[in-house]
Amino acid sequence: MELPKGTTEKLRKIAGEKGVLTSPVDLLTYSYDGTTNWEAKPEVVVFPTTTEQVSEIMKLATQDVIPVTVRGAGTNLSGGSIPVFGGIVLCTTRMNRIIAIDAANFSATAEVGVVLHDLNQELVKHRLFFPPDPQSFLAATLGGCVSENAGGPYAVKYGVFKHYLLGMRIVLPSGAIIDLGGKTMKNVTGYDLPQLICGSEGTLAVITQVTMRLLPLPQARQTVLAVFDNVVTAGETVQRILASGIMPAKIELMDNWVIQRIEEVTPLGLPLTAEAILLFELDGMSEAVKKETEEVVDCCKKTGAIDVKPARDTNEAENFWTARRAGFSAIFGNAPTVLAEDVTVPPNRIPELIGRIRRCARTYDLTIVIIGHAGDGNLHPAILTNRKDPAHYARAEKALDDIFAAALDLGGVLSGEHGIGLEKKRFLKQALPAEAIYLLKEIKKVFDPKGILNPGKIWE
Amino acid sequence: MEHLLLPAHHNGYSSAFSTLRSGQRVTEIQKNMDYLISVDDASRCMKCGFCMSSCPVYGVDHMESHVARGRNLLIQWANKGEINTEGAYQDALSFCILCGRCEATCPARISSATLTVQARAQLVTQKGLTWTEQLVYRGILKHRSLVARLLGLAAKIPGFSINEGKPLRHLADLASIFSRGLALPRLSSPFLSQRIPRRTLPPFGIQRRGEVAFFPGCGLEFFFADSGKAIAFALAEAGFEVVNPFGQTCCGLAVQSAGDLETATLMARKNIEVLSSFAAIVTGCATCSAALKRYGDLFSPEDPIQEKARELSQKIYDFSEFLVRPGFNPPKTTAFPLRVTYHDPCHLRWHQGIHDAPRKILHALEGVTFIEMEGADTCCGLGGSFGIKHREISLAIQAKKMEAIKKTNAQVVVTSCPGCLIQLMDGVRRHQLPIKVMHIAQLLGGETRGKVK
Lengths: 460, 453
Prior knowledge:
The structure holds two protein chains of two kinds.
Chain A: H1 7-15, E1 20-21, H2 24-28, E2 44-46, H3 51-64, E3 68-71, E4 88-91, E5 98-102, E6 107-111, H4 116-125, E7 128-129, H5 142-148, H6 155-158, E8 165-171, E9 177-181, H7 193-197, E10 206-213, E11 215-216, E12 220-228, H8 231-243, E13 250-255, H9 256-265, E14 276-284, H10 286-303, E15 307-310, H11 314-333, E16 337-340, H12 350-363, E17 367-373, E18 378-385, H13 390-409, H14 428-431, H15 434-447
Parallel strand pairs in A: 2-4, 3-4
Antiparallel strand pairs in A: 1-2, 5-6, 6-10, 7-11, 8-9, 8-10, 12-14, 12-15, 13-14, 13-17, 16-18, 17-18
Helix pairs in contact in A: 1-3, 8-10, 8-12, 9-11, 12-13
Chain B: H1 26-31, H2 33-36, H3 39-43, H4 58-61, H5 68-79, H6 88-94, H7 101-105, H8 112-127, H9 131-141, H10 144-156, E1 161-162, E2 187-188, H11 192-195, E3 199-200, E4 210-215, H12 217-223, H13 225-237, E5 240-243, H14 253-257, H15 261-275, E6 281-283, H16 286-292, H17 304-314, E7 316-318, H18 319-323, E8 338-342, H19 346-349, H20 356-364, E9 368-370, H21 386-389, H22 391-408, E10 412-415, H23 418-430, E11 436-439
Parallel strand pairs in B: 1-2, 4-5, 4-6, 6-7, 8-9, 8-10, 10-11
Antiparallel strand pairs in B: 3-5
């Protein structure tokens, strides 16, 4: 699109000389996010530093009907932060102050540009714990996390972002600044608007500040690694442990391909023929963790794990998790393009889903690596491919379609953590009833009558 | 951060420079530059953005074109001819401070700093150097004796030089108008090579353990001769006969970082010639050891000098790395109880993977209480000419470092890189911290030992 005359000057007046980027090279660097497939350039990038500036920007955009795509670090994995209709990219990375950490009331308020990792490092000093842990936490901003309702390995026990959202400050496309929710654990005051905006992928309002619920840091943590010669057995083990009344903080699964790569990079002495590894983290009171660890080890052995290793100390635990990260890195180091997906099924359907993914890999002659959160049914099948090889890439895309179909078929969803964005919108009709999509669109109209906020996302 | 670093990776500035394998000489290398710029390496970027968490520059201005992810994509587009490489692109390349920290966080293990250097070199090939760069890199820096003579003349101006004591302040500050306010160190007078003998012997009564060559580099030779002397004495006290070989020149990293591979290669040839006969070569400058350890990457395998370069690289040690090898006996330093903190130079921590060695020394010194600062392994903000070119960002990074140093309540901050010394000295002065900045060797080097207060 072409910006109305004088837009960049007006933006400079709002956000300052250094708060506006217009050079073609700079604009190109806001044409992508963490997703493989999509690129679209904005006409201008603006870095507000206050909610008031955001409000001014939104008034201008509404008046001149300019698309606004809000962006944090741009680590999104569904194309949600790509400005497909051009216009303004509103980048929140310079709104990065932690406003308050209220240890007595277990809450924290921060601007949306704060990086999750930076918040966590502050919280640890107060012996506080904010569990949602999307694996992009090193770079991801709070704004992105709320907008995508992000989660990670801790979801099995602790849930995802929405479970910790108490309140937020938002700016509507009209420029109105509104405080929603509050600081209390309980709050039933009309429709729960913060929950509606959480996960709305930047389509309803610009969030500028969030207040989150915190937990006390667990006293103790223990990692257990279990090796299986059969994925189905691993899946059953997860079920048995959960049924026994133990709720591990994390249950991560890795397949044979990952095991082989781990042994190449950080040898842990795993059998190269092993079909799957489960990596557990147990946390809580020291005595309880000790007892639970014994039971998990016992249960793994009983269900047929070929080896079970509780980490002897924090160093060894760290080695186990480093190995998992190294395995994850290996996926990206072993192919020019990786389609990393995010399907989620009820936890007891995981063995079936894995079976379907494997069939898929055989049918299309592809390497599909499986790594995922076994405890909550969220798998990340990663298809190793190459965008520059059209035939191969076409097969990869077909496989992706089949995996989505399999997930829905097994009572699951398209996305556990990444959102719909651009990547999955063509599947939305399969995933939601028509009436639900109608409701989404009507809600959107109330918030954003001119449709300027992150246009082109979620539905077709 | 530590827990996120990848295993077994950073024993060195990683792989991309190994793609510098074609071309007999640099002139030929530059002819083949299209091949050399490892676009494929940049294209492995998965756009995860983890580099943002470790980039000191992004940490200040939060701009995508100033972090590895953005730059790697721009380099790819430039190589495909999809973007204009004038102005803004060149600018984006200049915003990398080359600390290499992002390489340790990168899941795809892309050598982003090296890629940036390669992209700069490509621009130099296409567009040539500016006349000032030509004058400085090829007219002056290339000729060590000329550098010595010019600086020697400058040292004669009263106030521009020091014999002992505080290297910053006074008339040398006049020169800071050229460095946009960065307080430059005063010149050492006389230079290091006139302060230490060609051969320093272990003191009487200390068992001789061998011979080492000392490569002081420009920083210790001309500006921090005190530190240079302390290194020589510390090595001698550890039982080594320390030779200061004649004919050394600049290590070449500064010109290489600017993309002038031709000059870098000439410097490397000279140093290889001078140093190859020694069994071990020790530097007290993180930048020099980082450069010397990678000399092999500058030459093609067909060139017989490559093997010589690689052999030499095997024998290069940073000062602390050398000292903590088996048999190290720390000197007793009870003369002065001191609270000391340590700053990791990027060229040591990220380019060479050296983290423990200097800390082992500090822990071993009696009388020294070592206090780890927050973010010890983040850049000080100088990055050579970056600190002058991008003054505002450099100062913002420096301010974070000063905050961390202040929190330790240490009396002394030590490091092992003349560049970091300059930036830290400038910082403690600017922030008015009552803290001394020293080279780590000054805590244990012979006659300077114990003279802290």
